[in-house]
Amino acid sequence: MLPQGGKVFKTLTVRENLEMGGYLLSRREEVENSVEQVYNLFPILREKKTQLASTLSGGEQQMLAIGRGFMLKPQILLLDEPSLGLAPLVLRTLMKAIAGVKEQIKSSIIIAAQNVNEVLKMSARVYGMKLRKIVFHEETPEKLLQDEKLRKAYLT
């Protein structure tokens, strides 16, 4: 679970944050492999691996928080508003990386988001909520985009 705002351990380095995400991995080799996969998904984190997390930009901190969540290769990963406050270019990079992780570690990823357009590009199924109630479920992104009522309610 990555809560909204993707908190990082600001007084730890990028590398140390990732290692915290892999705290259940018993072998050093497993930790190294997971760290390497995160660096492949987010190359900027490799460049900044010795920097304190507090010195990263907001987008980089979000990438670090998501990378930390990927360390254990979870079967299901829940991301709450991963795009919150990100510049469009950073958002596209982040969504591309999330899609890559979905394929690479074969995880199911549940994303709660208001920025629906970017999330739709990598979604297999879409659920819509309004006032804490599910108003449609198991729609394909294509069907959502074709339904005028749903498009107006969720994409404008």
If you had to describe this structure to a student in words, what would you say it looks like?
By secondary structure, the chain is an alpha+beta fold. It has 2 domains: 14-114, Rossmann fold (3-Layer(aba) Sandwich), CATH 3.40.50.300; 124-156, no CATH class. 49% of the residues lie in helices and 14% in strands. The protein has 8 helices and 4 strands, in the order ααααβαβαββαα. The strands form 2 sheets. Strands 1-2 form a two-stranded parallel sheet. A two-stranded antiparallel ribbon has the order 3-4. Helix 4 runs parallel beside helix 5. The longest helix has 17 residues, at 88-104. It is elongated and about 50 Å long. It starts with 13 loop residues before the first helix and ends with a helix.
Helix-strand layout with pairing:
Blueprint: H1 14-21, H2 28-41, H3 43-47, H4 58-70, E1 76-80, H5 88-104, E2 108-112, H6 116-120, E3 126-130, E4 133-139, H7 141-146, H8 148-155
Parallel strand pairs: 1-2
Antiparallel strand pairs: 3-4
Helix pairs in contact: 1-4, 4-5
> What is the spatial order of strands in the main beta sheet?
1-2
Mean pLDDT: 85
Strand content: 5-15%
Per DSSP E runs of 2 or more residues, the count of β-strands stands at: 4
The CATH fourth-level homologous superfamily of the largest domain: P-loop containing nucleotide triphosphate hydrolases
Class of the largest domain in CATH? Alpha Beta
N-to-C span: 28 Å
- Taken from the alpha-carbon principal axes, the silhouette is elongated
Task: Tell me the domain tally.
Answer: 2
Provide a count of the helices: 8
Give a short account of the largest sheet: 2 strands, parallel
And the CATH topology of the largest domain? Answer: Rossmann fold
H/E order of the elements?
A: HHHHEHEHEEHH
At CATH level 2, the architecture of the largest domain is 3-Layer(aba) Sandwich
Low-confidence stretches: none
Radius of gyration: 16 Å
Q: Which bin fits the share of residues in helices?
A: 40-55%
Structural class: alpha+beta
